[in-house]
Amino acid sequence: QSHHLNSDSEGRHLSVRVNHGSTALDVTSIYAPTIPTARKIFFDTLCSSVPVSSNMILCGDFNCVFDSTKDRLSHAHLGPRPSDSTSLENVLVTFDLQYIYRQRHPDTPGFTWKRAHSGMAACWTCF
User: Fold this and answer.
1) Which of 34, 121, 35 is nearest to 74 (CA)?
2) What is the model's pTM?
3) Mapping DSSP to helix (H, G, I), strand (E, B) and coil, where does residue 89 land?
4) pLDDT tens digits, residue range 19-52?
5) Average pLDDT of the chain?
6) What does the DSSP assignment read for 40-69?
7) Which residue from 58, 55, 57, 59 is spatially nearest to 22, judged by alpha carbons?
């Protein structure tokens, strides 16, 4: 059994609660903006938009990575860590979430998305 908890007017996040017996799990899926300044604002305001839960999964297309050397196929053109990655890290701290793939594979590059014929790849994430 599931029911809608929360969403935003732009369609950037949707939260649902899934109940199974006496256990409730809150799942939030996001689609972060592609423009870095808009993405930073989105992450900075996400904590006040999503219900706090002790059993939570945050997943989706974050349109940024924590470590370009591990989470992107082509990273030579990237400079220092962008502020939107820092804002996303603050979301993880606020909700006490863990980056599951990186926790299980700390040094292994991994990609969940790849653009055909371009050499571009990145990691979509679940926390």
Assistant:
1) 121
2) 0.75
3) helix
4) 988 988 888 888 999 888 898 899 899 888 887 7
5) 77
6) HHHHHHHHHHS---SSEEEEEE-S--S-HH
7) 55
Q: How confident is the model at residue 117 (pLDDT cuts 50, 70, 90)?
A: low
Phi-psi region of 117 (alpha: psi -120 to 50; beta: other; left: phi over 0): left
Instruction: Work out the number of other CB atoms within 10 angstroms of the CB of residue 32.
Output: 21
Side-chain-facing half-sphere of 106: CA atoms under 13 Å: 1
Token pair 């999964």 is found at 57
Q: Which two tokens stand for residue 72?
A: 């992107």
Q: Which residues pair with 61 in a beta bridge?
A: 31
Looking at residue 121, what is its pLDDT? Answer: 47
pLDDT range class, residue 75, cuts 50, 70, 90: low
The residue whose two tokens read 């594979």 is: 105
The residue assigned the tokens 């706090």 is: 52
* Distance, CA of 73 to CA of 114 (rounded, Å): 9
